[in-house]
Amino acid sequence: MRTKLLGAALGVGLWLAAVPVVAHHSFAAEFDADKPFKLTGVVTKIEWQNPHTFFYLDITDERTKKVTNWAFEMGSPNGLMRNGWTRNTLKVGDVVTVEGSLARDGMPYGNARTVILTSTGKRLFAASSQGANP
Amino acid sequence: MMLWVRVAVAVMIAIAAAYYSAQAQGPEAARSVEATPRLADGTPNLGRVPGEKGVWDVPYIQNMGMRIPGPDGKTAAERANPGAARGGAKAEPDVPFLPWSRAIYDYNSRNNSKYDPEGYCLPPGGPRMMATPYPMEIIQQPEHKRVFMVFEGATHIWREIYMDGRAHPQGDELNPTYLGHSVGRWDGDALVVDVVGFNENTWLDYFGHPHTDLLHVVERFTRPNKATLHYEASIDDPGAYSRPWTVSWNIPWSAESELTEYICQENNKYLQKLTDDFGEPLLR
């Protein structure tokens, strides 16, 4: 599996177009909109819960082959369902690519904006808590 | 034809053309001019039409300082890009801060609203109820002389607005609460709601404009057409601001939506991880 961190190349402009679906806590206090990421890994756990759904990926570093378990925050189950998800959209063992913003504290943690299912190529909006005004 | 008549006709034609082209832009544009629904007695219906679905799609208004109508009736958010960076109190000359509220607001700006009560799964209070982006329904019960506002988020709350002409409780009978004590009346087609009795556990908005328990909010709800709820609120809090100030925005109707369950407290990792300014966990 590939680990790929894209730098500023992903562009901040794209983010600002995202429609805020939920706004439970401060996006900017926890995540850095200027630190976008794109990561691929295997789903190890899903917490389909309020106020935010979390899922966890085992991500293997391409160079060191070290596996790290990352956490990703999405919107609430309601927000996700309004965007076409169900509680079974992600399953343990699925391979997915996630795009979003990294946590400010440097931990293996991010706010997911889109989730792409590798098996089908389906791109799912993650009902990010990032507003138009981070 | 005299020149001014020709100009006037040209302007009218341009306005008419713009109007019809807006109408022709599709069902979305056409819906926006459907008439205000009304109850049998002619009172505006701020909720669903019988047999139909629909909720108010409350927008994400992050900064009330950008929603103050100016002399032209437009708010800063309507005049310019509402996505301006956080500039603290000095960027908001129209907000009549007192020195302490200015300092607290600047603190909340500097730490990106880290201590926003909504992040703790506490409810919004005052105008922020109409600025927290979760669906909301208004249910009128004229036979019971009351109006309910039911909010899916931020914490699955409802407001009861007494329409029976009662006054606010006085003195210690007025118990400070998150949502305050609301009494309403109709002023023509506007539902006017007077709210007092707020506790101090909420912020006015995500950006962190503070308020005290002296807060007195007067809200005006109008439905100029089926698709739009116009919201206006005067914020009068002599404990935090030197004079009253008014904010306003529109709330769009989402015709096919319904409310669903949202229990914020279920798994609030944000609060579990929150640290104070010294890096110590807030919850121990």
Q: State mean pLDDT of chain A (0 to 100 scale).
A: 81
What percentage of residues of chain B falls in helices of 4 or more residues? 10-25%
| Spatial strand order of the main sheet of chain B | 1-2-3-4-5-6-7-8-9
Major sheet of chain B, described briefly? Answer: 9 strands, mixed, barrel
Q: Tell me the structural class of chain A.
A: mainly beta
Structure description:
By secondary structure, chain A is mainly β. Chain A has one domain: Nucleic acid-binding proteins (OB fold (Dihydrolipoamide Acetyltransferase, E2P), Beta Barrel). Chain A is 10% helix and 40% strand. Chain A is built from three helices and seven strands; from the N terminus they run βααβββαβββ. In chain B, 17% of the residues lie in helices and 23% in strands. A nine-stranded mixed β-barrel of chain B has the order 1-2-3-4-5-6-7-8-9. The longest helix of chain B is centred in the first third of the chain and has 21 residues, at 3-23. In chain B, 33% of the residues are buried. The A-B interface holds A 16, 20-26, 28-30, 47, 49-52, 54, 73, 76, 78, 81-82, 131-133 and B 60, 62-63, 82-84, 111-114, 116, 118-119, 121, 132-134, 152-154, 206, 257, 260-270.
